[in-house]
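Reopening this one. Same input as before:
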Amino acid sequence: MIEINNLKFGYKRNKLVIDDISLHIRKGYIHGLLGKNGTGKTTLLKLVAGLLFPDSGEIKAMGFEPMKRKVGFLSDLFFLPEEFDVYKMSIENYVKTHSVFYPNFSEEDFYNYLEEFEITNKKSKLNSLSFGTKKKVIIAFGLATHAKLMILDEPTNGLDIPSKAQFRKIILRAMTDETTIIISTHQVRDLHNLIDSILIMDEGKILLAANNQEITSKLYFGIEAQPIQTQDKLYSEDTIGGNVFVKENKNFEESNIDIELLFNAVFQNKAKIQSLFPNKKGE
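Same output, byte for byte:
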């Protein structure tokens, strides 16, 4: 789906925001893109979407070079930025105006998604809605395009707790074997049980690129009543239920990923994580 090779980009000369990144992003998966503020996540997404042009290296998405902005690429791409403007038009007019650019758009699916988000008045003016409601409308529209590549930058920002749960359900229902969704977020708990692979960035580089199966084969996520010191432990923290931890999975035990623990373990043990996951092209 997406091939990135030796990608470099900087807004200013001699200051790279994306520093020699190579990645392979598979179709049919939901990929979580994580990182601290200012690490280059949004820049990387814009490069993949063709909104920015690489200084060097190459990107291929769905067989296209995004920077060329070909019709075949744009008609199968939906990009949701973290911040966006909406026109002074009703929801139904927004759909009529924008759906013509997407050959696989389903009006039926769009209004079904809106109903699940508990938005019932299609004549509502977009500019009069709250930020969270606007975002739900745009998310519903994006999923109804049935674009093969969907890039969502902080999609749950501004959503209340029930809406986040609805978002997860709708995203999973919209997925197909031909769809690729990349979600960038700081709210890692919102991705729980949603994503299939994890990309973690730091200072314009990839610290971790691995699917869930690979992560749980090499790392074990557990909880213990009292902290136990072991050389295999990569990160731990005390909680009300006990001491939660991540350790190297030398005994091939089964566990479920805790994304927040993984994130903290990666940043606390960068060298160790990179030795465990040397192939940064990911899957």
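So the earlier flakiness isn't reproducible anymore. For the record, The longest helix spans residues 131-144.
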